[in-house]
Design brief:
By secondary structure, the protein is α/β, with parallel strands linked by helices. The protein is 34% helix and 25% strand. The model has no long low-confidence stretch (mean pLDDT 97).
């Protein structure tokens, strides 16, 4: 079996048996078995799920990272290897990322005696709930590491295309829940209540003005209401309505300004309508900030590897690789996967042709990074 086909087969097995964040027990077992079949050393970190491998010897250490968890999505592809776990799907391509880093591990193992140091490969759980990177760091996986590199497949780019940037790349992620409490009433007698649905609807509209009219148009910001829930029948005005959504920014000053204005607008609406509005924020990963030196290095290595390279635009998605970069320098990159449907879509279907070239890229990147560390 060819190297490329082996990686594709592994990817397809992972795809058939996806597991949610912190439930990746079988996934971890498969990864451990495949790594050990390649005589690759596993490190004994205290992890519930996930696995850390290492190739080479010496003082210098470079890390590579793959994420391994899936999403609570019912797959809508017709692939022969579609998910066999109902309601769970690798709709973000973490199965692809894992296969890439498995391939990089095998390639590095072939050159282990020539490596000027060690390459530590992290197969990280729980990226989707933003807790996995913190768990690995607490376990000590960054001890002695000089730099770290990771990837995400990019369905909007063709296979063979590569992009990254120095500085801010992925966004700060904040989740908010707004609870609007009015006064319930019969739908035929709205004047006897305080219509929480009417108030919530007007609040949604007002919140859109924050990004469009209160933030410099040159600053990146997205404020989206993604869920509205209230009422349970057709002829009653409900007492309360709950809104949920997300704020995405790249600058802390913009993030704090928008959060302040959301609270002020909510308080103003509450006073005007004689209602109660409670705003609760939940912090996700902070902005992913690539080290300028290592981002340029990763870009040059991609050109060396034959990729069509492009300067990445700011990305409004969140990525807990950002947590590693708060501790050590490194770079996160995008590699084209040419899917008609985007990330987190039930019909997401990345082109497997990206896997083997990306494995060669990361193996070469890690080896040459050791020479520069």
């Amino acid at each position: 079996m060819s190297f490329a086909q082996q990686l594709i087969d592994w990817r397809r097995e992972l795809h058939q048996y996806p597991e949610l964040s912190l439930e990746e027990v079988a996934t971890t077992g498969r990864l451990r078995d495949w790594l050990q079949s390649g005589h690759i050393r596993l490190l004994p970190y205290d992890l519930k799920t996930g696995v850390v491998a290492e190739i080479g010897a010496g003082e210098k250490v470079i890390a590579l990272r793959a994420d391994i968890d899936a999403l609570p999505i019912e797959e809508a592809t017709r692939l022969p290897f579609r998910s066999r776990n109902a309601g769970v799907m690798h709709a973000c391509g973490h199965d692809v990322h894992s296969s890439v880093m498995l391939g990089a591990a095998l390639l590095l193992k072939e050159r282990e005696q020539q490596l000027p140091g060690r390459v530590r490969i992290l197969f990280q759980p729980a990226e989707e709930n933003f807790g996995g990177a913190k768990a690995l760091i607490r376990a000590g996986v960054l001890d002695g590491v000089s730099a770290i590199f990771g990837m995400h497949n990019e369905p909007g780019r063709p296979v063979g295309h590569f992009a990254t940037r120095g500085g801010a790349f992925y966004a700060n992620v904040d989740r908010f829940v707004i609870r609007v409490t009015g006064k319930g009433a019969h739908a035929a007698r709205p004047h006897e209540g305080r219509d929480a649905i009417l108030l919530a609807s007007q609040l949604v509209t007002a919140l859109q003005s924050v990004a469009s009219r209160e933030v410099n148009s040159l600053d990146s910001v997205v404020l989206s209401v993604t869920r509205i829930q209230g009422g349970n029948t057709w002829n009653v005005l409900p007492e309360s309505v709950e809104l949920e959504g997300t704020l995405r920014t790249h600058q802390v000053a913009v993030q704090q300004r928008v959060k302040k204005r959301v609270s002020e607008i909510a308080a103003g609406f509450a006073q005007a309508f004689g209602a109660q509005i409670d705003v609760t924020w939940y912090a996700g990963p902070t902005a992913l900030v690539n080290d300028e030196r290592w981002a340029a290095f990763a870009f040059e290595e991609a050109q060396r590897a034959g990729y069509q390279t492009e300067h990445a635009e700011l990305h409004m998605g969140g990525e807990d690789f950002a947590v590693y970069l708060q501790h050590i320098p490194g770079a996160f990159v995008s590699i084209g996967s040419a899917s008609e449907f985007g990330l987190h879509h039930p019909a997401f279907d990345p082109d497997e042709a990206l896997i083997a070239p990306a494995a060669h890229y990361f193996a070469g990147l890690a080896e040459r990074a050791l020479q520069q560390a």
